[in-house]
Amino acid sequence: MTSFIALRQASRRDASELAILADIASRGFASWLWFADVATGVSDTPLERGRLKMSEEEAVGGWRDAVIAEAYGEVAGVAIGHSLEEGIDKIEATVPATEPMLALQKTVVGSWFIGSLGVYRHLRGIGIGRRLLEDQIERADRRPVSLITASDNEAALSLYGRNGFLEAARADAVPLFDNSKRHAWVLMTRSAA
User: Per CATH, the architecture of 6-190 is what?
Assistant: First the structure.
């Protein structure tokens, strides 16, 4: 049923698509983080900063960790995953909004961590997200798999639940703005295959 979906390892030239899809996957949280670098003059726009971050050679969560899904002749989605190493215990959040997510990640050291899984809206509902998720589970190579999503992202919670992920913990999200909708970050895990 999903034979029209092709997966490939991302390359550095995919950095712009990766930035857009990481922002979609985070429901705008990534561009909010990247905006801080606009204020300091590192880039002109948040997406430009995201593109620069995604194109870094050795960045965890950058192009080397990304898998692109293509469908109907275009880039359709991305999954960005990596092994969550012990060094994360030494990392301190530099922005209060990232503290809850970092604390959740520190509880699943040793797992394969899916940092982003996003699909363009016009291509959702045809199995692209499921195929990317299956690929990440395969890449975990018998390790547990973990990810974090928002408690109000019902489509993501449903996809992960249907694929063997269970809620392991929650942490209240720090509101980005005074009128931000309240939600929690949900750590979901899937035991080793």
Answer: 3-Layer(aba) Sandwich (3.40)
